[in-house]
Every structure is written in structure tokens, then in C-alpha cells.
Write a structure and sequence with these properties.
The complex is a heterodimer of chains A (about 100) and B (about 170). Chain A has five helices and two strands, in the order ββααααα. Chain A is mostly helical and about 100 residues long. Chain B is about 40% helix and about 15% strand. The chains are: A mainly alpha (about 100), B alpha/beta (about 170).
């Protein structure tokens, strides 16, 4: 597994660049990860990110878009706006989580 | 800030750049045959792929507001259920097998058909209905799920599917 250096810290990531240890994440790092993929984070982005991280910590897996909507209250359409084209993957990446594994 | 050029960054190439486009033809009206198209469409949309679903013939069951919430699974004549037809043909068996399949789907936290269409619609998926099927079944747009963009002809379908990967289900 590669170790990336961001913000002067060593961050463990997988081959694609997703963090493998959510505990190495903080909101400063989220901003850096967002910059890496050409996103600028707003408060609303952070609300989605915080929910995704809390849900992952509780459930042991990254929430799918459907779960973001039904449990988190983030409408799918809005997530497509916040994280264009590939919301589930981009949200997971910026939140320091693995990609969701569910089909739906 | 440390240089990030050595940091692996996932490739979130926009499908616009790859030009990928997917068209799924849903032609079946049973519960088990409704899901494959919807699951794949949803996955494609999550990957930023332009996605269209064309509902034709029995596929109208999926978008007809009177039937979409009540699709059935028929086990009789389906060897993959490994159940004898003499048993699966008894009265009430379709209701029972439908109930069982619905439970299995719900246990996986997969939405029911109407909610699944909402999800696909909200994700930017395009839904189309077949003109000939609508005429045969005497249905209009008023009878169909509100997210259906239009009832279109085979010729219209040829135009919208130009350059697309096409799946017939």
C-alpha cells in the first residue's frame, strides 16, 4: 500500500488514492483531497462528509447514495450537484473512506 | 504544503470525455426481471455515464403507476428455483414466492420499484416509453410514472441510442 505525504503528514492510501485508515483524516486533509480532484468544499459538502464518516464508523461500511438520502437526508440530486458525475466515489474519497461496496 | 504530485489520486474521468453512453431496454414485467435494468442504470449514473432506459412491452409494468408497486415473481417454469412445477403451480404460490423475493430484496436494503425509479430519476437518468406498446395497451403519459420523459417511436429510439452501449433485458 502506498504512503502519500499530504500536509506534511504520512497518509496511508490504496493504489487508487483512497485513504485506508479513516483515523488519519481531518477536515484540513479533506480540503487537500478535494483540491486533488478539483473540488472546493462548502459547508454543505462538510455536512455530507461528516454524516458519511459517522455512518461509516457506526456501520463499518461507507454509505451508498441511497443511504445518504434515506438515513442522512441528503437528496441524491443535491449530492450529484455537490460531487459532480461520481458522487459516491468523490464523497468517499474526500471523506477519507473506501468506496461503497453495495450495488445500490 | 507538500507537493502532491507523488500522491495517487483516483481517476474521476468524466464520462463526457470518454463519451460513454448506456441504453437499457426493459422488456419484461416480472419483479425479478425489473431489477437488473434498474440496478445497472443506477450504477451507470453513479459513474457519471449518460443513461437512458427504454420501457417496452411487458416492461411497461415497471412504469405503469397502477402496476409498478405490485410486480410479481412467478416461480413456475423457472428451473433455477429448483422447485417442482406441480407445487409451484398450486394456487397462492405466485403470491408466496413474490413475498419471499420482496423480503430478500428489502433485506439487502434495495428500494422497491417506485422508489428505485425516483432514485434513477434524481440521479439524472432518462426514462422513455415505447409508442407501440402504449398504443397496444391504450396507455398515455398520464398512466405512467411522472419521471418518464416521453412516449417515443422506434425511430426516436434509434436516434437517442446512437453511439450508446445497449442492453436488452
Amino acid at each position: 500500500m502506498p504512503v502519500a505525504t499530504m500536509l506534511g503528514r504520512e497518509i496511508h492510501v490504496d493504489e487508487e488514492g483512497f485513504l485506508t485508515d479513516p483515523s488519519e483524516w481531518d477536515e484540513e486533509l479533506a480540503k487537500q483531497l478535494a483540491t486533488n480532484i478539483g473540488l472546493e468544499l462548502t459547508d454543505r459538502h462538510f455536512e455530507a462528509i461528516r454524516f458519511a464518516r459517522e455512518d461509516q464508523a457506526a456501520q463499518g461500511e461507507t454509505p451508498t447514495l441511497r443511504r445518504m438520502q434515506t438515513v442522512g437526508g441528503f437528496p441524491t440530486k443535491e449530492l450529484f450537484g455537490l460531487f459532480p458525475k461520481k458522487p459516491a466515489k468523490k464523497l468517499s474519497y474526500v471523506a477519507g473512506l473506501q468506496k461503497p461496496v453495495g450495488c445500490v | 504544503m507538500t507537493a502532491t504530485d507523488t500522491v495517487p489520486v483516483p481517476s474521476f474521468d468524466d464520462a463526457d470525455e470518454t463519451g460513454r453512453k448506456l441504453v437499457i431496454i426493459c422488456s419484461k414485467g416480472s419483479l425479478d426481471m425489473a431489477y437488473p435494468g434498474l440496478v445497472l442504470a443506477n450504477a451507470a449514473l453513479g459513474e457519471g455515464i449518460e443513461t437512458h432506459i427504454f420501457f417496452t412491452f411487458w416492461g411497461f409494468e415497471i412504469i405503469n403507476t397502477k402496476t409498478m408497486g405490485d410486480l410479481k415473481f412467478v416461480a413456475m417454469g423457472n428451473p433455477a428455483t429448483h422447485m417442482p412445477n406441480a407445487v409451484m403451480g398450486l394456487p397462492g404460490m405466485t403470491a408466496l414466492s413474490t413475498k419471499m423475493m420482496r423480503k430478500q430484496i428489502a433485506d439487502l436494503d434495495i428500494p422497491e420499484i417506485p422508489e428505485f425509479l425516483d432514485l434513477i430519476h434524481a440521479s439524472g437518468g432518462h426514462l422513455w416509453a415505447c409508442r407501440m406498446s402504449a398504443d397496444m395497451m391504450k396507455l398515455t403519459e398520464d398512466d405512467l410514472y411522472e419521471g418518464v420523459e416521453g412516449i417515443i417511436s422506434a425511430t426516436d429510439f434509434m436516434e437517442l441510442s446512437e453511439g450508446a452501449q445497449t442492453l436488452f433485458i
